[in-house]
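Hi there. Long-time user, first ticket. I'm pasting a complex I've been working with (about 629 residues overall). I'd like to know whether the download I got is complete or cut off, because the file seemed smaller than I expected. Thanks.
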Amino acid sequence: MSKSFSIRHRLFSFSTPVRSLWSILALLVFFLSIILLSLCLGEEFIALPQLFQVLLGKGGQAAQFVVETLRMPRVLMAAMVGAALASSGLVLQSMIRNPLASPDIIGITGGASAAAVCFLSFFATAMGVIWLPVFAIAGALLAALLIYALAWNSGVTPMRLVLVGIGISSAMGAVTTFVIAASPLSTSITAYIWLTGSVYGASWIEVKALLPWLLISWPLAFYLARRVNTQELGDQLATGLGIPVQRLRLILLFLSVIMAAPAIAYAGAVGFVGLIAPHIARRLVVRSFALLLPTSALVGACLVMLADLCGRLLFQPLDIPAGVFVSAIGAPFFIYLLYRQRF
Amino acid sequence: MSLSEHSLVDDNLFAQSPLESVALSLGYEKKTIIKSLDLAIQSNQITVLVGGNGCGKSTLLKSFARLLKPSTGQILLNGADIHSLSGKDVARKLAILPQGPVAPEGLTVELLVRQGRYPHQNWLQSWTEDDERLVRKALHDTNMTEFADRSIDALSGGQRQRAWIAMALAQNTDILLLDEPTTYLDLTHQIEILDLLFELNATQNTTILMVLHDLNLAARYAHNMIAIKDGAVFCQGAPETILDHDMVKAVFDMECHISADPLFGTPMCIPYGKGRKVDSQAAKHV
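Hi, the file is complete. Here it is re-exported in full:
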C-alpha cells in the first residue's frame, strides 16, 4: 500500500497519501509566486524588496496605491474566481460521473449570462450596475432549478441532467445573443466584455462581496467529500453503502451553483476553467474528493491569475480580458499533460 | 430488555432468518415483476438464486438490498422493515455488489476498498485503526494486497472483480449479496471468485445470497438453491434435493440430463440440443 499520512486520536482520525500532499504543497508555492509576480509586474514595475516594503505599509504613496488599490484586489479576485469555477466544475464532474461537465457546459453559466445581459440591456440604467451580480446569481439558480425540474423522472439520472443542461445552455445562449443583437451598440460592447470574463478594475468591495460565498460553499464541499467519493461508484453501490443518492445529487447541484454563480456574477462568464482545472488536478493527486478540491481550486486560481497577468502585460496599454487567455494558457498545458501521460 | 432477549432466544433456537420478504410485490413503472412473495434467506448459508433471463431474480436481489422500493409488502432485515432503517444502518449489516460495477477512472484498488468503510465512519472519525485493519484484511483475503496501488482500469477482469469483492468485505457485514459475480470471467476466475466466497462463508459464517447463471456451479457451491420462475419461487432447497430434469424443464424450458458431478457429487445439468457426437473411447480424458 502507498505511504499515507495518518492521524489517529480518540475524537479525530484521518489518513491521506503522502505524495498527494507534496503535490498540493508544490502547487501552493506556485500559487503564491504568481501572486507576488502579479503584484510586481505591470506598467509600473515594482521590485521584490520594494514590494515587501509596500506589504508592510512603508512603500511610498505611489507604489502603495498601485499595489494596494490596483493590483492586489485584482489578483485576489482572479484567484477567487478561478478557484470557485474550478471547484464548481469538480463538483459537477463528480456528481455526473462524467469528465465533460462544467458550469459553462450544463447551463449554469448560460443562465447567469442571459440574466446579466437582460439586466444590462433593460434595467442597468434605471437600477445601477451594482445590481448586476444579483441578477446573474438569480439567473444561474433559475437555470439550475429548470435543469433539475426538467431532468426529473422519479429521480434524476446524471446523463439526463447533462443532456437537459446542454439544452438549457444553448437556449440561454440564444436568449443572450438575441438580447445583445437587439440592444444599442454601447450596451452590446459592455455585455460582450462581460461575457468574455474579466477582472479588470476589480476593487476591494468586490473581493469582500465574493469571499463570503466561498467561505460558505467550500466548507460544505469538504463536509460532503466522503459522500462524493462514494457516490462516484454508481447509484447502486452508493445506495448500498448508505448514501441517499438523490438527495446528495440535489445538494451537489446547488453547491456547484453557489460556487460558480457569484464568481460569474463579479467576473463575467469566464469559460473553460471549470472544465479543465479538475482534469489537471486529477493528474496531480490521487482520486479523492477532499484532495481534488484544494488542488482543482489552486489550479483554477493559477490559471485565471496567469491569464489576467498575460492580458495585462502582453498587449500594453491594451488590457485584454482574462477570459481570452484562460483557454490560450489552459488548453496547451492540458494537451501537454495528456501527451506526457500517454503510453 | 425483553424484546432483545426474545430475539436472542429466537436466534439460538430457530436461527431466525436475517433477511426475508413478506408479501413482497415489485415492479418498474406499471409492470409487476414479483407478486406477493414470501421468502426467507437462511442464516450463515450460501443461497443462490437461479432462473431464466427476465424472471425477476436480479430485481428480487436489488429489493433485498434496499435498492428498490417494494410496491407492496416488506423486506425484513433481522426482523425490521429495511426501509424504516437508515441507509448507513443497513450498510453496516448488509453489503451488495451489483452487476458490472464501473470504477471512476484512475481510482486505485486501495482507495476503492476504503470506500467499503463508509458506513462505519463519520466526519471526525474518517480513518480509525479498525478501518485500516479491515481494509488490509479485505485486500489480503482477496489476494489483492500486491495490487493495492494499481488503478482499477489497469487490472484484468478477475482482479477487478476481486477488488470489488474486497470493497464489499471491508464493509464487514454479516450478509453479502452479489448479482452475477462471475459474469464475463473465464472459468479459472469464476472458480477463484466462488472459492473465495465459499471460504468466506465457511470461516466467517457470512450469509451469502447471490444470483448465478451457471447451474452446475450454483449446485456445487450453494447450500440452498432458489429457483425463480415468472416472479415467483418455483422451488427451493438443497440443490441435490430440487435440481432434476423436471425442475430444469419447468424453470428454463429446456430438456436436460442430470448426472452426479464426478468430483463433488452435486447434481450436474447436461443440456440436450444439437452438437457433435464423438466416440467417448476416443476422447483424450479416458
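A couple of notes from our side: Chain B touches chain A through 47 residues (CB under 8 Å). Confidence is low (pLDDT under 50) at residues 1-13 of chain B.
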